[in-house]
Amino acid sequence: MNTSTAQDISEFVGREYKEGFTTDIESDTFPPGLDEDVVIALSKKKNEPRFMTDWRLKAFARWKKMQEPVWAHVNYTPIDYQSISYYSAPKSDADRPKSLDEVDPKLLETYEKLGIPLSEQKMLAGVAVDAVFDSVSVATTFKKTLADAGVIFCSFSEAVQEYPELVKKYLGSVVPSGDNFFAALNSAVFSDGSFVYIPKGVRCPMELSTYFRINAMNTGQFERTLIVAEEGSYVSYLEGCTAPMRDENQLHAAVVELVAMKDAEIKYSTVQNWYPGDEEGRGGIYNFVTKRGACRGDNAKISWTQVETGSAITWKYPSVMLEGDRSIGEFYSVALTNNYQQADTGTKMVHIGKDTSSTIISKGVSAGKGQNSYRGLVRILKGAANARNYSQCDSLLMGDKCGAHTFPYIEVKNPSAKVEHEATTSRISEDQLFYCKQRGLSEEDSVSMIVNGFCKEVFKELPMEFAVEAQKLLGISLEGAVG
Amino acid sequence: MLSIRNLKVEIGDKKILNGIDLSVNAGEIHAIMGPNGSGKSTLANVITGKMEEDISGTVEYQGYDLLELDPEERAREGIFLAFQHPTEIPGVNNIYLIKAAVNAMRKHRGEAEVDAIDFLKLIRAKMKLLEINESFLYRSVNDGFSGGEKKRNEILQMLMLEPQLALLDETDSGLDIDALKVVSRGVNSLADDGRAIIIVTHFPRILEYIVPDRVHVMLNGKIVHSGDKNTAHDLEKYGYTWVTERINNPTEAVA
What we know:
Chain A is of the alpha/beta class and 483 residues long. Chain A has 12 helices and 23 strands. In chain A, strand 3 (127-133) and strand 4 form a beta hairpin. In chain A, helix 2 (36-45) runs antiparallel to helix 3 (50-65), helix 3 runs antiparallel to helix 8 (181-189) and helix 6 (156-162) crosses helix 7. Helix content of chain B is 37%, strand content 27%. The longest helix of chain B is centred in the middle third of the chain and has 15 residues, at 94-108.
């Protein structure tokens, strides 16, 4: 790399985080700290039934005995779990808005800035939004259209009140409360999230979308998403995330559980743009997330697509338990790290049923001093005759201070299985850059085009409007990162 | 249009260009010939901005000090390079790149983005001229293209961008005779009074199809001879040794 490209990199790094504004709004926040009383108070605040309180307390008891995992290829100063506030909600929650007109205009303004059109007129594009502002779901749009189809799409809190039997049946059925340190913490203190239930044979009439946003300072966001697709149903779910700019690190430990019954399909897409920290590595979100889906019935299919451009640290392995025969698991991922961002992400595909198949396409882009690791497990159990897996992990490096790492784990207990793994590492070449510039494209546009090309196999899995957003986001996240 | 004065490129103590003087007017076609290593590609790299360091001398283009402009600014001012080895950009559709390039030029001129239908119409017409299949547009840029396809793709881009000054860096190398004719037809379709074309080559053959106004012979980083189109024939007949001898014995030079 010559000096001029080194300079380009430093210019690149100078970009600003566009979503880094805060909303000045009165909120109802717990003082920092975590013990049983906090868990009970939280549950009470949410007016939860007994089973939920007990479930939380059980999770908390487990969490207390657990150690924070250290195996991920990431470095960070230890988190003080007692300095975090475990509940924050806009104050107006006490008398919840009944319609959009009643929603605090400042909140709506926030969403507007984020580019989320909340008013239903603007929602003609066919996306229903369950907007989570800090810990509480503020407004859910398109409820009626969905209700007519028999689809339940609401905040988790509402689900606990309205559909306790469903929650009781499926909560923790894919990610048990003691699954891992962060999942246990989430199980104890999760404040809200989304709940989706697609009845038998129903194709969800629209794509469901949740935007999460962390606003208050020093709050952890622990949301929980549960999606159940009954036999023969289909749903596509989109999740987008942003957070304001803060010098402190904020913890985000979410749990997502997907259940796909026989012949059902769940497509789960994420564009994650949490605040990544500044160019010195100050601040940013710790994104420690457990996402797992279970293909419970034969021919079920679960597909994870993620575009991870934000967060100071990403620790995330959306996984699929392929229980039903002929069930299918897919994982398409773009993970981008710039400046001091660190990502340790990948997937687990656990083949249990016969003739199950899984596909893993991972694209890691590293720039600045970013560290990007792919960590994936393909496990073929004894009964999974004729299981197949194809994994492809490609890394793209920009500059000479970043890193890309691949940690594939393969465990095969059935001799009829076919497992393929391919990995490549490449750089954006000077020739590619010059070629684009010679065609009149700016440096930013050139980089963005080349990186988008690299990520194409993943982007084509995203729903159209998300694909466009993801491409733009990638461009913004990489402004200047050339090498 | 283009005026190069005493252009030198020295890397360390190696002189790659050793005092080039060259003037190209609108409406002219120039050929720069010379054996491998004579500095032809370096000259193209300096004009387009791929090479930005170790340069002395002046390069003026339409009133600009060209050496002060970034490569993309030069491109937007109408300088186009048909690459000798066009690079591959996996995952980026050819049509996407060409459209982005066309729009970058339009933006620079203060024009609105090209209408999608007009764009398709135009590019199809150009593709027909170059005998290119439509599937070409939806393949990744140069990815898996044959040598000949890459060269055609360069000319297609050139026709879409309609540059003021087009540099063709060994566009003829690796082309069979049929492809050479097609490519030449494309280049000739662009040539008019307002534009200039510089063809860099070491084979005279392309100059049978694209007839130059001036032919310059480069050796060891210098233009050692400039003549009319017949220079190419002489070169074909006598080879580069003929030029070398001319330099060594200037008095015995053939006209």
